[in-house]
Amino acid sequence: MSDATGKVYTETVIYSATEAFAAEVPYQTAIVTLDAGGRVTGRILGERVGIDDRVTRVEIRGGVPFFKKIA
Amino acid sequence: MRPVAVIGIGKTAFGAFPDRDLRSLAVEAGEKCLDNGHAAPSQVDAFFLGNFAGPSFVGQNHLAPYVSTALGIQGVPATRVEAACASSGSALFHAYTGVASGVYDTVLVVGVEKMTSQPTPKVTEILAGAGDCAGEIKAGSTFASLFAMIARRHMYQFGTTREHLAAVAVKNHANGALNPDAQMRKVITMEQAMAGKPIADPLTLYDCSLISDGAAAVLLAPAERASEFTDKPVRVLGIAQASDFVALDEKPDITTFPAVRLASQKAYAMAGVGPADIQLAELHDCFTIAEIIAIEDLGFAPRGAGGPFTLEGHTARTGDKPINTSGGLKSKGHPVGATGAAQICDLVLQMRCEAGARQVPRHSLALAQNLGGSGATCVVTILGTV
Q: Would you report the helix, strand and coil content of chain A in percent, each value rounded to 5?
């Protein structure tokens, strides 16, 4: 089972961020239940996702996983 | 263990006070509390300070003796307790254990936070320090976004709606409008609450508590000595603190807070009462969804039913289970380190029939629930009038 794919457990779009992320709003974060087990908090790139959507990890930036919806 | 009583309370107003520093707020609350309990600083056996992030907000460390000596309290143990937004609830719990065990007689608890000296993005960053900085926070989470993810999942599992969330805000603002010490004494309509500026979907500005300066204090003594200090003692019938994961993504189910369940079960057992017996409560509405989940975790309503329970009016000041008659964190304000102690002050005012325009008719058994972070700490306190 892969730790690079999984299912969205919950998500939000952030409009008000800390200084470090202020330039990026709005952006989506999600908790993803990995196919390999366990959950991770990551960022969503591209199309907005909802609960139960399947996602795949496209990159890891500064230790943060970035996911994208599997069409 | 011996019975313990609250013999004095004291609070500052909550708000944005550019001319006040952290220590002057803490000293004001502490002095009011000692006056209220007819106690001299020399009678205090130990001092506990609840404060989340004084070092980050105002650059001062070693805060407990910094405040206690300014109150004229000399030589005794002075300890700062940090448990995010449950800092002064936790300080109260540890003060209680000291009195109940017989190590101390009179113990003063002060909670304080001075937040408004920093701009909002910096406040958001400091508050985020109560989350998992190596994981969820590094990914861009704010506290509003963590509770937004909780709300989203609660909506998905139980059918909770935006209207349910808004009903919490409308109710708490209606109460806060009657509280002279509240930060935002403004009645809001359902339409306003539903149309607030988005902060983190599905939460809007009206789902979020305030950024505040303020302090609150509670004086404890053995119940057998309470009459030396006050003719209106309130008994601590039950109190418990519980803990859980800091990171939201480590929790098996984010729609319930195990620390709230555990702390309340222990406090109920200690007090010999159940949720149906509680006549009024101050709950930790840092975000509207947090009040809904607290209603469920404390057993006031079944799982998933906290939203409808609120919308039906049960938790209104005139309802059968009044919650946050002070206005809650939403309207009264949320100087995070002061909140747990302030909840006790507000309940004691009700229990002494001193709550003015927001006084409720049934007030002999009350509960306070103080939550830290996204549920990693919870303190539940049950108070009764003898």
A: 10, 55, 35
Q: Which domain holds residue B132?
A: 1-386
Active site residue B208: no
CA–CA separation, B327 and B181 (whole Å): 10
In tens, the pLDDT along B93-135 reads: 999 999 999 999 999 999 999 999 999 989 999 999 999 999 9
Mapped onto helix, strand or coil, the DSSP state of residue B286 is: coil
* Helix axis angle, B143-158 to B120-128, nearest 10°: 70
Q: Cis omega (within 30 of 0) on the bond before B322?
A: no
Mean predicted lDDT score pLDDT of chain B = 97
ipTM score here? Answer: 0.98
In chain A, residues with a C-beta closer than 8 Å to the C-beta of B199 are: 14-16
B85 is catalytic: yes
Structure tokens at B328: 């809650």
- For residue A39, what is the enclosing H or E element? strand A39-45
* CATH level 2 (architecture), domain A5-69: Beta Barrel (2.40)
d(CA B383, CA A24): 47
Q: How many domains does chain B have?
A: 1
Give burial (CB, 10 Å; 0-12/13-18/19+) of B265. middle
Domain residue extents for chain A: 5-69
* Residue B224 to residue B271: CA distance in whole angstroms: 18
Q: What is the largest CA-CA distance in chain B?
A: 55
Which of B125, B138, B203 is facing A19, going by the closest CB pair?
B125
Task: Return d(Cα B260, Cα B275) in angstroms, integer.
Answer: 13
pLDDT tens by residue, B15-68: 999 999 999 999 999 999 999 999 999 999 999 999 999 999 999 999 999 999
Distance (Å, whole) CA B153 – CA B157: 6
The predicted model gives B314-336 an average pLDDT of 98
Contact B140 A27 (CB under 8 A): yes
Q: Which two tokens stand for residue B250?
A: 């480590």
Q: Which amino acid makes up residue B11?
A: K
Residues on chain B touching A20 (C-beta within 8 angstroms)? 125
Closest-CA residue to B383 (of B371, B365, B370, B359): B365
Quick one: average pLDDT of B213-232?
A: 98
Nearest chain B Cα distance for residue A63, angstroms: 8
Q: Hey, what are B68's tokens?
A: 């206690």
Written as one letter, the residue type at A59 is: E
Can you name the residues that pair with B204 across neighbouring β-strands?
B198
